[in-house]
Amino acid sequence: MLDVAKRMLGSTIATGEGADRVAVVLTEVEAYDGANDPASHAFRGQTPRNTPMFGEPGTLYVYRSYGIHWCMNVVTGRTGQASAVLLRGGNLMVGLDLAMERRGRTDHLVDGPGKLCQALGVTGDLSGSTIDKGVTLALGAALPSAAIEATSRIGISRAKNRKWRFVMAGTVYPRPNEFTDEPA
DNA sequence: GGATCGATCTACT
DNA sequence: GTAGATCGATCCC
Fold it and tell me: Above 80 in pLDDT, residue A164?
């Protein structure tokens, strides 16, 4: 399942068509491993919210964080396994104007999970939907392992020591205290 | 039925 | 660099 997360780096996530199109090349993702991962929403079993995680590969799981933000996952594991990849950030390639309009600002458009969803126009309505229905994901070529950095995951309180956050090497992503987590 | 906490973002000091 | 916002899901009584 970590292989799939790495393959997402360099892939393109997009919404809309024509003038409404917004496309982002992913440079930062995190892997979550269902029942085996204390940090996963699926760790405590299936609930109404996380039901999409238990679906087939390619299912979207969108949830609200801190009451205000949306975060988007793509299910990667087999049906019932609840493995998923959190899309955290990337480089905006298409739809700059629309992204700025949705975000209400001209900077920091897609450099975080909530911001990524807002720029793409992704909301909870899409949770439980499937890739290619409203959101498209085009896998890029697999990156050489040397181009991928594995680090601790961000913003969670459990299992921080698992290095399941993958960043494209060379991507500058300001995040204070990023490497102050407990050692593995 | 009530309390608590979060896979975050923004604004202000 | 630090604190506040804000609400649904989950957990405890």
Answer: yes
